[in-house]
Amino acid sequence: MGTTKTEIFTEKQNKLAGMMKALGHPARIAILQYLVKKQACVCNDIVGELGLAQATISQHLAELKKVGLINGTIEGTSVCYCIDAKVWEHFKTVFEGFFVKYVNKDNCC
Amino acid sequence: MGTTKTEIFTEKQNKLAGMMKALGHPARIAILQYLVKKQACVCNDIVGELGLAQATISQHLAELKKVGLINGTIEGTSVCYCIDAKVWEHFKTVFEGFFVKYVNKDNCC
DNA sequence: CCCATCAATCGCAATATTACGATAAATAAA
DNA sequence: TTTATTTATCGTAATATTGCGATTGATGGG
Hints:
The structure is a homodimer.
Chain A (H helix, E strand, L loop, with lengths): L10 H12 L3 H13 L3 E2 L2 H4 L4 H13 L3 E6 L2 E6 L1 H16 L9
Antiparallel strand pairs in A: 1-3, 2-3
The structure holds a DNA duplex (30 and 30 nucleotides).
């Protein structure tokens, strides 16, 4: 128990849920919004922006990297992060695809 | 520790993250897809559709209800569920608003 | 009334997530 | 070389999530 039963769902369902989950934390939302706002690579002043410890930010960055939403490139002694435009677009498309499917009929409730 | 530090984020960031989190599990994705496919109120044959115990499904339904995505109306001895069109539309709009903000410039990474 | 059925809730166990201090590894500056 | 800075990782603690069996409360049929 305690583990999600991924084997009973389709690959697509698991993938979509994973994408949503990656965005399911305010720190990760904030990080992405910051990167979007800066419209450029951003060295890790993210730690200064949010009120979380460096180790915690690093963990959140790793999760965003895991789903491919951000890239990090080593820049001397620090690391620069930016949004992966292609993956960002993919997320957008997949999410739109999910929500577009519902056409409002006359439901009872 | 262990708790998300909601107080350091904006209301909007917390809300958006909460919405994403609600969709961050394949069972909840599957439930919504099923309701969308049926395009109608659906009594709890959802339990038969997915391979999860009744108690577990009930929990997932409760979470979807919590964010308002579905409504449940008592129909005799069973309960009928359907998607809340207004909230569905709201999710769609908010998600689109989040993703639209990124315009691809020439980034370094 | 008595029994069957359906769905929410309780209680529990297993696992995942969040957060942070401490440490390690890498590079830059002195 | 020594020191400072930056970031990933480790270890740990607190809390949340997932899943299920059992129970409860409600309704309908007999």
